[in-house]
């Protein structure tokens, strides 16, 4: 485990992006998403990926010079053509638009087409919540799940995240993908030749399996809750792909396995200005009363305390904000490759965790 100060992480990420041709402003906005994601503890979607994003840029899979454009605009809706830009750039433009529209009309929808992997949804919904909004974001991805009763990778485990503000505290945040477990857990089991529960995936014949070696070899992840995860996966494609005339999961290639190819995922953002929909101002009081009802509900034997969604992530975020960002070794290895590629050194130190 490494400990690196937030400013140092910002410096390395900003320099790397600026050397690819990004403006200081764009580089800072992209880096902010990735660093916050590490601070939330979602390391699979944070700065670890910047080296790979830049490799994708170099091979033409991400358009560095893209200027995303709104191709549909209305009083409470818009559609952004991201033009193959890095996902964080286009998504932040779309989030800003959603908040702007919601402040005028109360509710807004913004869709995005021709985008790339945007990282973790937590950052974007938290940004909306900090401005007094209920925020939701979702994205389709390349196929990696089987349809219940089917075989092979047909559906995407399309992520969904939401957030809403909490008086005097960090927002409530919730961020999931729709498979029983993340592919990362399957790949880790493959690496260590471990068996997995047969509820996680199916083999090439569509039969539940304990053998993770079938993943990427004809097997597929299973949707959480069976038909429930299937239904939500379809919902995400409807709101993002259908609604924007963008790609659905069947047309999407992995952002990281085919670096020269465009990812071209679709996103959907829903934003509600709570002050307009709830003008009597009782939202936060009712919310807090309900959250305390949950937190003070009976605990199972051996449970010390109950938590609200996102609490664990915000606790890590606050600790990293105060003391420096804690980086696991796989993230550190990727950052070291990034620093070497731009002839920079990282000022960090080893810690026990």
UniProtKB/TrEMBL annotation:
<protein>
    <submittedName>
        <fullName>Malate/L-lactate dehydrogenase</fullName>
        <ecNumber>1.-.-.-</ecNumber>
    </submittedName>
</protein>
<dbReference type="Pfam" id="PF02615">
    <property type="entry name" value="Ldh_2"/>
</dbReference>
<dbReference type="InterPro" id="IPR036111">
    <property type="entry name" value="Mal/L-sulfo/L-lacto_DH-like_sf"/>
</dbReference>
<dbReference type="InterPro" id="IPR003767">
    <property type="entry name" value="Malate/L-lactate_DH-like"/>
</dbReference>
<dbReference type="InterPro" id="IPR043143">
    <property type="entry name" value="Mal/L-sulf/L-lact_DH-like_NADP"/>
</dbReference>
<comment type="similarity">
    <text>Belongs to the LDH2/MDH2 oxidoreductase family.</text>
</comment>
<dbReference type="GO" id="GO:0016491">
    <property type="term" value="F:oxidoreductase activity"/>
</dbReference>
<dbReference type="InterPro" id="IPR043144">
    <property type="entry name" value="Mal/L-sulf/L-lact_DH-like_ah"/>
</dbReference>
<keyword id="KW-0560">Oxidoreductase</keyword>
